[in-house]
Q: What sequence folds into this?
């Protein structure tokens, strides 16, 4: 077989392996090593490239951000700061149709700025927000759909693990990726709030609900007590990075330390919870760094096979410009979103398309934001919508089936797609802030 054929078969093989349940990094590494062996007829070369992949990836100083931001997010979640910001938001939207849903989106947006995890957001707000919406007569399908839709903000609003993974694959600055994610994250937050207002106005039966009378206007002191810790963390982390005072690694360390001090000071952190956060941080960090190592050997395999160059030649021969290329790219991500998780999609498709986008003169930072938003739609689509599964497993209500979670999330997946189209058409929405 030719190198192109081996490379093409390897990509399909990886997708099949992941779909049948093989751990993603194992699938990436195993298929890549075998493919390099076939391409060069040298097994020792495959092993040597694996060693190089490890030294060039997880040993990089930049990836110290992974455990630091992960630990900070877990501390914030376990300390109940998400519930605090939710209560403040609920008091502000209490008399608006769909107000608790809007409060959930707003709280998720703020919470995302310190957690960087869609799964953490889905878990926290399915326990905090869904029971309240059901209490006030909201449609169960709408209630879980709001939590599922807004949970994806955790992977778009920095700090985000997916932006860190992309920054490695595309060799871009983590700080630039974080900065570029701010406006798209805010844009998607307001798009969600606007869509809830629209549904409340023109599809009130679907939304349901009644005014949340128990949520009265909070006095300023109470609002300050509940929001100051979280907003302070955001200021330290994102403000430190954007002002240039802190590197992403230093900001992660400062945020983790301050989050821990706040949790202990407010008596919401015990030694047991602290230990659980450390153990969970280790598990998450190990899985992400394993993914990054596997992505490194996979990228090298694609380069040896020459598959990206072949795709570039096909596009050039058929005179396919940026628009058609992006249509193909988004369609591929939406398709893979029904089969794979976000990290897998990024690791598989980005190395294939980077050599196509860069010669077109487009910013790879912009391409990263488009990639993460497009891949995140897969969190809401069956059969592998991870956020939907997390929400179903987090709530104990027989009235809500997994089908209801997926159907409730569908309108928000549509909103994400519209925002994605805007980001593609107007790159300045993401990279304008860098200039």
A:
């Amino acid at each position: 077989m030719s190198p192109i054929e081996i490379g093409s078969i390897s990509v399909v093989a990886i997708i099949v392996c992941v779909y049948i349940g093989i751990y993603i990094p194992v699938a990436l590494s195993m298929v890549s090593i075998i493919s390099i062996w076939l391409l060069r007829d040298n097994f020792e070369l495959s092993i040597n490239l694996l060693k190089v992949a490890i030294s060039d990836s997880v040993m990089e100083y930049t990836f110290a951000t992974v455990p630091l931001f992960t630990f900070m997010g877990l501390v914030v979640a376990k300390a109940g700061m998400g519930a605090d910001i939710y209560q403040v938001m609920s008091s502000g939207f209490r008399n608006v149709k769909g107000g608790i849903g809007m409060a959930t989106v707003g709280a998720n947006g703020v919470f995302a700025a310190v957690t960087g995890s869609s799964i953490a957001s889905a878990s926290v707000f399915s326990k905090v927000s869904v029971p309240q919406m059901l209490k006030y007569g909201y449609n169960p399908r709408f209630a879980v759909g709001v939590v599922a839709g807004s949970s994806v903000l955790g992977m778009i609003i920095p700090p985000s693990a997916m932006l860190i993974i992309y920054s490695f694959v595309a060799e871009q600055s983590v700080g630039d990726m974080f900065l570029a994610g701010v406006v798209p994250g805010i844009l998607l937050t307001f798009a969600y709030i606007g869509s809830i207002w629209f549904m409340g106005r023109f599809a009130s039966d679907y939304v349901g609900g009644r005014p949340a009378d128990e949520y009265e206007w909070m006095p300023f002191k109470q609002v300050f007590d509940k929001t100051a810790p979280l907003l302070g963390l955001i200021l330290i982390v994102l403000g430190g990075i954007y002002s240039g005072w802190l590197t992403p690694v230093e900001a992660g360390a400062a945020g983790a330390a301050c989050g821990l001090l706040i949790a202990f000071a407010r008596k919401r952190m015990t030694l047991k919870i602290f230990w659980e956060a450390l153990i969970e941080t280790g598990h998450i960090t190990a899985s992400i760094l394993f993914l990054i190592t596997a992505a490194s050997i996979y990228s090298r395999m694609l380069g040896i096979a020459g598959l990206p160059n072949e795709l570039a030649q096909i596009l050039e021969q058929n005179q396919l410009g940026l628009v058609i290329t992006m249509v193909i790219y988004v369609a591929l991500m939406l398709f893979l979103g029904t089969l794979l998780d976000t990290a897998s999609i990024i690791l598989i498709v980005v190395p294939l398309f980077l050599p196509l986008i860069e010669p077109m003169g487009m910013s790879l930072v912009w391409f990263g934001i488009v990639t993460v938003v497009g891949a995140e739609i897969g969190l809401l689509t069956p059969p592998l919508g991870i956020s939907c599964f997390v929400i179903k497993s987090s709530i104990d209500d027989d009235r809500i089936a997994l089908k209801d979670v997926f159907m409730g999330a569908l309108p928000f997946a549509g909103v994400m797609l519209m925002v994605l189209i805007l980001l593609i058409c107007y790159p300045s929405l993401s990279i304008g802030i860098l200039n």
Remarks:
- The chain has one domain: 3-434.
- Residues 3-434 form one domain.
